[in-house]
Design goal:
This protein is α/β, with parallel strands linked by helices. It has helices spanning 38-46, 48-61, 73-80, 130-136, 173-185, and strands spanning 6-10, 17-21, 103-108, 125-129, 146-147, 155-157, 160-163. A hairpin with a 2-residue loop joins strand 6 (155-157) and strand 7 (160-163).
Length: 188
């Protein structure tokens, strides 16, 4: 995939899952996605809208059996370290981290013109969040996509998921859980 497709890319170079969104947040001065307080800084500057986005991403990336156990401590830990490298690459091996998918966030450039079909590498899951991100990525024909739910809010083809935008009004907890189960059962 061409790098001119994206205005921003945050997270590890070889993620398990990539989220595609249409609009970037405001970025704090000297912000680094891998910094321990990166998500806190992002939410402090951008408010509740981005808190919801990173919360939904954290929940989807959590591979624990019950994400609500222990008052959601596992997905909250994942959310707070969302763009960090895999735990295996960290020096401190004594930290008890929940089982997770390592994610990358890509903001789809609004000025991109597509000349052909985009190929999504099968080594990662690809979650195209909302119609605007899907259209910018050239996804207009849904004939080859299969619905995961009866209301057809989530469509999939191989490792590509077309989902609602990351907001609880559109992407409710039941859909988050459906997404998590689909990914867990369909190992890449």
């Amino acid at each position: 995939m061409s790098s001119d497709l994206f205005s921003h890319i945050w997270g590890p170079m070889n993620p398990d899952i990539i989220f595609y969104l249409p609009t970037p947040p405001e970025i704090p001065l000297h912000w680094q996605a891998s910094h321990p307080d990166a998500i806190t800084q992002l939410v402090a500057l951008n408010g509740n809208h981005w808190r919801k986005i990173v919360t939904i991403m954290g929940k989807i990336c959590c591979l624990e059996h019950d994400i609500n156990a222990n008052k959601g401590i596992d997905w909250k830990q994942i959310r707070d370290q969302l763009f960090n490298e895999s735990h295996d690459q960290q020096i401190d091996k004594h930290i008890n981290t929940p089982s997770r998918l390592h994610c990358q966030l890509r903001i789809v450039n609004s000025k991109v013109e597509h000349h052909g079909e985009i190929v999504f590498p099968s080594e990662s899951w690809h979650i195209l969040c909302g119609k605007e991100a899907q259209q910018r990525m050239g996804i207009t024909d849904l004939r080859h996509y299969v619905s995961l739910d009866e209301k057809q809010k989530i469509q999939h083809q191989h490792t590509v998921l077309l989902t609602p935008y990351l907001d609880y009004r559109q992407y409710a907890n039941v859909l988050i859980e459906l997404t998590r189960q689909h990914i867990a059962l369909s190992k890449v």
